[in-house]
């Protein structure tokens, strides 16, 4: 199968079950909402090293308090690890941002039976040292935590849901410039898809990893099979002679369909001159239960 | 099947009427004849709805809560919507005392005025009064220490004394003026007053908020000034009220309020928020 003369390899991306949550961050202006959201979703590229994967889903036109706001998506390996990370990130990055407030963004796209409750506001309220107070509006409880600038408002409960993490595809290109241009085009096409974030810098990964290492103290190491500079030294290389650079796009989403849609749009956009092949990372189907067959995405 | 019924008052009664039977959930699935046969206590005599009203019933397709519309001067009708749990009840006119008292769900709309004890001790649902309300809106009945514990009351006109007295949760928004002792003895919840407030707002409150758009003649000496700022909750209240068609145009999301804590006779954990007028 070829798109714009770029070969789509007959393989699949292997993704994992994760737990996701959407938080709406609001502030007095777009700028301050963005600063809070950037801080909260920073250093959240991979659960392996960061404990969580996160990103900004996009600007939301309607927020609970009517102020400018952004939706952020957070993905953890379990409900407990997600809650632990969110408490830290809201506590250190959102409460601290001037004029900010934080609300449950919901997970309407996920089936109700797959949703769970995270009591984030209920736990963060203790920062108020006994001076916190709550209000119930439309059946939802909000906590007001007094802070030096005024007060911080956070919803008591947030929705968590079963999610899909680690959807991916790789762009094999003739040059680093071609790979980056293709990746940028892919990210631009994928960003508008709701329920999806690309947790790596700019949505792009230059240093994909393989499971394990020759060093016993490392659980993951550079993906040698995809390193162009190791083609002659690594028998397991999968790169043909004409490939000189590889970039990967990793996708986390609240549902399988959202990740699939995002991958389809991204692969289509990435098939530009200079790109030789699109492939995907998997572990033979043994580790992750969500398989995205690249060619089936276009059926 | 969704039932919609429209009762039109034939003539305003001379005697007070106990109208707690006129609820949307009571007319659901009933025919016109069955509705007309429902009991109605007029003075000390048990009558039927049919002796006081004409009725038209429409059965609509699909599921949905029942809707009941009452038309006429119902100022002598007490307890309209009392204990309501769901559906929609529209009064095209004014009501007497206890409208929507102890309701737990649904929506009660009164297009003119409501009497005393509007929404007294209600726990949920929504009441909208297009005109004025009497005393004790959302308050506790005498002998009880817990008033309104949930839901929303919107009064587009003015309200009487002791609005929200002893309330424990919920929101009361009065677009116009309000009588004395608004939020008296509150344990939680919010009273919002657009027009001129009476004296001693928030007296004896232990918790909760009284939010005023118009400066009162005085703030009680048992309240202490904190600061001027933009409370994070105000945009949430503002958005909620806007959805209920109640707008305070003088107070946008970025309005500055003066914050007072009190009543310090009760621990000082309640608050008065007073809109700071532009200079």
Sequence-ordered SSE layout with sheet pairings:
The complex is a heterodimer of chains A (299) and B (279).
Chain A: E1 2-3, E2 6-8, E3 12-26, H1 30-41, H2 47-50, E4 53-59, E5 69-76, H3 79-94, E6 101-104, E7 115-118, H4 120-124, E8 133-137, E9 140-147, E10 150-155, E11 158-173, H5 176-190, E12 196-197, E13 209-211, E14 220-222, E15 245-253, H6 256-270, E16 275-279, E17 290-293
Parallel strand pairs in A: 2-16, 6-10
Antiparallel strand pairs in A: 1-2, 3-5, 3-6, 3-11, 3-17, 4-5, 7-11, 8-9, 9-10, 11-15, 11-16, 12-15, 13-14
Helix pairs in contact in A: 1-3, 5-6
Chain B: E1 2-9, E2 17-18, H1 24-27, H2 32-36, E3 39-42, E4 45-48, E5 53-60, E6 67-71, E7 77-78, E8 88-92, E9 107-110, E10 126-129, E11 149-155, E12 169-174, E13 190-193, E14 209-212, E15 224-229, H3 234-243, E16 257-262, E17 270-275
Parallel strand pairs in B: 1-6, 2-7, 6-8, 8-9, 9-10, 10-11, 11-12, 12-13, 13-14, 14-17
Antiparallel strand pairs in B: 1-5, 2-3, 3-4, 15-16, 16-17
């Amino acid at each position: 199968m070829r798109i714009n003369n770029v070969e789509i390899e007959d393989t699949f991306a292997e993704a994992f079950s994760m737990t996701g949550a959407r938080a709406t961050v609001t502030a007095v202006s777009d700028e301050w909402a963005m600063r809070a959201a950037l801080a909260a979703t920073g250093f959240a590229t991979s659960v392996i090293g960061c404990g969580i994967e996160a990103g900004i889903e996009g600007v939301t036109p309607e927020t609970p308090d009517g102020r400018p706001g952004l939706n952020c998506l957070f993905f953890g390996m379990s409900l407990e690890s997600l809650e632990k990370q969110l408490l830290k990130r809201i506590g250190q990055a959102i409460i601290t941002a001037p004029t900010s407030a934080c609300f449950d963004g919901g997970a309407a796209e996920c089936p109700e039976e797959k949703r769970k409750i995270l009591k984030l506001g209920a736990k963060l309220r203790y920062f108020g040292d006994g001076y916190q107070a709550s209000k119930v509006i439309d059946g939802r409880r909000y906590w007001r935590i007094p802070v030096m600038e005024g007060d911080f408002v956070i919803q008591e409960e947030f929705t968590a849901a079963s999610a899909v993490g680690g959807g991916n595809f790789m762009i094999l290109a003739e040059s680093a410039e071609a790979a980056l241009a293709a990746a940028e085009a892919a990210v631009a096409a994928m960003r508008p898809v709701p329920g999806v974030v690309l947790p790596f810098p700019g949505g792009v990964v230059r240093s994909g990893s393989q499971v394990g290492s020759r060093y016993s103290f490392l659980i993951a190491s550079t993906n040698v099979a995809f390193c162009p500079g190791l083609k002659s030294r690594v028998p397991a290389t999968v790169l043909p002679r004409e490939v000189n650079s590889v970039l990967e796009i990793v996708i986390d989403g609240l549902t399988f369909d959202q990740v699939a849609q995002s991958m389809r749009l991204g692969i289509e956009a990435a098939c530009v001159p200079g790109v030789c092949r699109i492939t995907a990372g998997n572990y033979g189907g043994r580790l992750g239960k969500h398989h995205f067959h690249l060619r089936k995405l276009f059926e | 099947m969704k039932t919609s019924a429209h009762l039109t008052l034939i003539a305003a009664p001379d005697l007070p009427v106990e109208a707690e039977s006129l609820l949307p959930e009571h007319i659901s699935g009933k025919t016109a004849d069955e509705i007309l046969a429902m009991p109605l206590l007029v003075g000390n005599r048990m009558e039927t709805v049919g002796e006081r009203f004409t009725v038209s019933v429409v059965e609509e397709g699909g599921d949905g809560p029942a809707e009941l519309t009452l038309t006429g001067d119902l100022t002598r009708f007490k307890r309209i919507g009392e204990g309501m749990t769901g559906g929609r009840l529209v009064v095209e006119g004014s009501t007497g005392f206890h409208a929507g008292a102890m309701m737990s769900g649904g929506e009660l709309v009164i297009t003119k005025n409501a009497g005393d004890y509007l929404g007294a001790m209600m726990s949920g649902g929504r009441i909208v009064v297009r005109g004025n309300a009497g005393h004790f809106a959302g308050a506790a009945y005498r002998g009880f220490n817990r008033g309104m514990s949930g839901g929303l009351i919107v009064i587009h006109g003015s309200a009487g004394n002791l609005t929200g007295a002893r309330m424990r949760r919920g929101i009361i928004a009065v677009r116009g003026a309000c009588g004395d002792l608004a939020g008296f003895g509150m344990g939680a919840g919010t009273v919002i007053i657009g027009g001129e407030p009476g004296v001693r707002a928030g007296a004896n409150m232990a918790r909760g908020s009284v939010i005023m758009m118009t400066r009162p003649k005085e703030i009680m000496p048992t309240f202490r000034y904190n600061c001027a700022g933009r409370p994070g909750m105000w945009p949430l209240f503002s958005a909620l009220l806007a959805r209920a068609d109640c707008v305070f145009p003088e107070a946008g999301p970025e309005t500055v309020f003066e914050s007072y804590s009190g009543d310090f006779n009760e621990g000082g954990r309640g608050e008065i928020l007073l809109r700071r007028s532009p200079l």
